[in-house]
Amino acid sequence: MNQVLADTARVFSAGFNRWASLSAIIIVPPLVILHLAGIKDDAMDGLVLTLATLPGYVVLVRDIWESWRGQAGTVWEACVSVEIEVLIQAVLLALLVNGGALLLGAGLGVLGIGLMTAWLLATIIGDQIVILEGARAMDAIKRSWELVRPVWGLCLGVLLVSMIIQMLVVALTGGVSPSQTPVGENLTGPDEMVSLWVQVAPIVRWGLYLVMFPFLAVLQTVVYYDLRVMETGDPEAVLAVKKEPEVE
């Protein structure tokens, strides 16, 4: 686990400018639209972000892959090089993963949390398989579990780290009211200060998203490559060869 996090930090820091600029292109437009529309529901916020950022997430993971091969181009080149079929399958996978997690976790208490966690664990590298191997959504879920199963403990650790990072961001800045965040609870003074925090909190959250989303993408992509190397035993072949999507 320590090695995975170290590799993630190395790759993330080496391409930080690229990740940050691409992340801004991906994340800021839907967040601005939500803000201008006055939508403050966390569930709606999460759904819109998930669907709106999937195409960008596809680009981000592919950009990471190209960077590892030393062939990364500009952000714009990465954006226009993604196949429509891959985008469709990535969005479908997101609906299957998130919808499945909600259904498994709905109203079942501890059992529901366990089932939801198992589903998220089984599908943790599904995005990478769709994007980098050209698999279809359902096939990606099956293949993800095949790769995860032998080292499920490591992948569970990665999943928990991802969840903790996301929960920290939401806990610190997720509330639209100052009293709903740890920072806001300590705010005392005139109404102007409270009003200022209400305006600033979403901006702080967006700023954290710009860093969080690419970091999690790098983390899961590093895990994907590690599992592929374990599967093939040939690191050079994993990084040097891209499997093109099958044409029917």
Can you walk me through this structure?
The chain has one domain. The chain is 79% helix and 0% strand. The protein is built from 12 helices and no strands. The longest helix has 42 residues. The chain has 248 residues and is an all-alpha fold. The C terminus is likely disordered. It is globular.
Q: What gross morphology would you assign?
A: globular
Classification by helices and strands: mainly alpha
Domains counted in the coordinates: how many?
1
Bin the helical content. over 70%
Secondary structure tally: strands:
0
Q: Calculate the terminal CA-CA distance, rounded to whole Å.
A: 39 Å
Low-confidence stretches: 175-189, 243-248
Mean pLDDT: 77
Based on CA atoms alone, the radius of gyration comes out at 19 Å
List the topology elements.
Elements: H1 2-14, H2 16-36, H3 42-68, H4 75-80, H5 84-105, H6 109-122, H7 126-133, H8 137-148, H9 152-173, H10 182-185, H11 191-232, H12 235-240
Helix pairs in contact: 1-11, 2-3, 2-11, 3-5, 3-7, 3-11, 5-6, 5-7, 5-8, 7-8, 9-11
In summary, what is this structure?
With 248 residues, the chain is mostly helical. The chain is built from twelve helices and no strands.
